[in-house]
Design goal:
Number of strands of chain B: 0
Structural class of chain A: mainly alpha
Shape of chain B: elongated
Helix content of chain A: over 70%
Radius of gyration of chain B: 17 Å
Order of helices and strands of chain B: HHH
Strand order of the largest sheet of chain A: 1-2
Radius of gyration of chain A: 30 Å
Order of helices and strands of chain A: HHEEHHHHHHHHHHHHHHHHHHHHHHHHHH
Helix content of chain B: over 70%
Strand content of chain B: under 5%
Structural class of chain B: mainly alpha
Oligomer: heterodimer
Largest interface: A-B, 8 and 12 residues
Amino acid sequence: MMPNLYLWLIPVLPLVGAAINGLFGKRFSRQTVSAIALGFCGAAFVMALWIAAQFSSLTLPHVERLASWIRAGDFQADFAFYLDQLSLVMLLVVTGVGFLIHIYSVGYMWEEGGFYRFFSYLNLFMFFMLTLILASNYLLMFVGWEGVGLASYLLIGFWFTKDSAASAGKKAFIVNRIGDFGFLIALFLMIKHFGSLSFEPVFRIVSGMPAETAGAGLLTAIGLLLMVGAAGKSAQLPLYVWLPDAMEGPTPVSALIHAATMVTAGVYMVVRSHVVFDRAPQALMVVAIVGTLTALFAATIGVCQTDIKKVLAYSTISQLGYMFLACGVAAYSAGIFHLMTHAFFKGLLFLAAGSVIHAIGGEQDMRRMGGLRHHIPWTFWTMTAATFAIAGFPPFAGFFSKDQILWKAFSGEHGSWVFWAIGVFTAFLTSFYMFRLWFLTFFGEYRGETATGHGDDHVHAVSDSRAGAPAPRGHGGIHESPTIMLIPLVILALLSICGGWAGGERFDKFLSPVLHAGVTANSLEEVGAATPVSEQKEHGVSEGLLESISVLAAASGLFLAWLLYQKRPQLPQEIAHALGGFYEAVVHKYYVDEIYAAVFVKPLIDGSTRILWHGIDQDVIDATLDNSAEGAREVSDAVRHMQSGNLRSYAGWIAAGAAVVIAYMVWMGTR
Amino acid sequence: MVPLSYYLVLSGILFACGVTGFLIKRNIITIFMSIELMLNGVNLSFVAFAAQWHALSGQVFVFFVMVVAAAEAAVGLAIIIAVYRTRETLNVDRVNLLKL
């Protein structure tokens, strides 16, 4: 007898909070609104902990069916929830980090208008995210998938009176549609060929199919289409363009949705579908290549950004690329491990960046920061922990997960030294841009007052060194954030330090029932192909050596950042001049937005304007309506003269009409 | 026996007189009488056909028409009196507005 865990309560609790705040929040005080939001979100977290506490006594996977949803012939999709090791990890990360960010938001958004609206959306996001994680079939997962997209749209455009925020929201939504299209086609293929979307039957059927090593087939197609969906949601090449713009939203939103949870949904989905990918090596290869290129590409852009949140956004894209690289070399547990540690340190980085922005009254440009470490020590120290974590210094969390990925990229069944080399170079870039951010923000002199806001991003580092006593705008000088914002920072800092101590191997062992479950059911010749861990390639290079190389890369990133932004601040400008056109291209994000605008957006808008708007809407639809109305008016103009009010003319018309009728009848009769 | 065609010609003449009067006269009462003339022209053709074919239905129709004509006369004359009271004229050319 399976115990009833009431899994459905976990997503529904935040939904209740969202409904209460959304419907009645306008009349509540800020205290009530935050109590409701935190209460329901915290309750979901407590339930997740309660489930984790009795996890070892469960038979897995644990499926709970709440109600039937769709029945059409043989096809069936239910409101059912699926709990296994993978969803438990995601559940704890999402509810835990989500709850911390809820707490932080209370402090961050306190002064803002639409307080209740913000918390209603935030709780709504939690509902959809938990639905996505706990769904027991792809269709319910898709509901959550679309729902988090909706919540993301609402929250990016939270300050909807600002034009850039509103269009950033639309951009995120539209770019995600492209990915969702691929996801949907994958679902249709599954329905057609497997007759079901529930995880258990789909995985059972796929497990019985041979690996498509020779050529591309159904599984490769499904895998690639799922990857298209994942690339949209998780901001991979070529669909990453929405994520940097999404920074228009409030900073806690960037932390929760666009760093810690929603953007990792694609990784979760790929890992969840690992049975498909295991049997489609070409699809797996595409995942690995996309992940690697995204990691490198976004990291190079991140190096030249000047907006503190934009740096973190490109860093997020880059780190997501790492996770896809891990998935692509079939090191799923390493991907999920990095997902977890990334949720800690990137969530913390965003929250700390929010605290910095809060401290200096809304400034986001790093060129106008500097020397803040004495003013906001708590923020400084927590951000330091996160920076070291993401750069990959031991013993911080990021070191363990990133190293696990790089090791698997090098040594795994599907790995290659190319992936490893690009990964290490990206790790170096990551370390460089993160310490650049760190030095620019917290060290040197405060540049807030005299910075003019144009020109090269390194000019002010030199010219403003004379800037004396900082006199920032905003309320009451540079000030540390309130305690309610610092508590989540400290907790996340502790997690960023300790979160990786479990170690990749133990994590892998914990997840192995999920990730290698398909193997046992396979036919014999399959086992060799689908056992990633036990049969690694023979290569004479030890994990220790690779670890020291990646630590070295991180350290050289730190050293370079120190050299360029601390020791000799005029040097970056000279380097930029020396690089010339390439530097320009990187600063302009490789002109990707411009290219997309020219290739996709402009033809679409022009075509819509000329053909659909002017051509069809105005010339056909409107013209039909206008002309028929005009015709009716002209006919009535002529006919209304008949109704003169003169009785004798009426009589004449009656007589004339009767004459016509009689003439007609006579004519019919004599034919 | 008088042939049917005689009756029909007379009926047509009566009806044509009615129509003509209906169209050219300006006095409401004259118009009203013209309508009665048309009705009676029709009545005449009904009874002529009834006699010719020995069918009673034509005669029944005539009774119906007479009843309707009587009712119409009652209502119509009442309207005429009302019109005269409010407008002090029976010239239809000057009764061309529904509202005063």
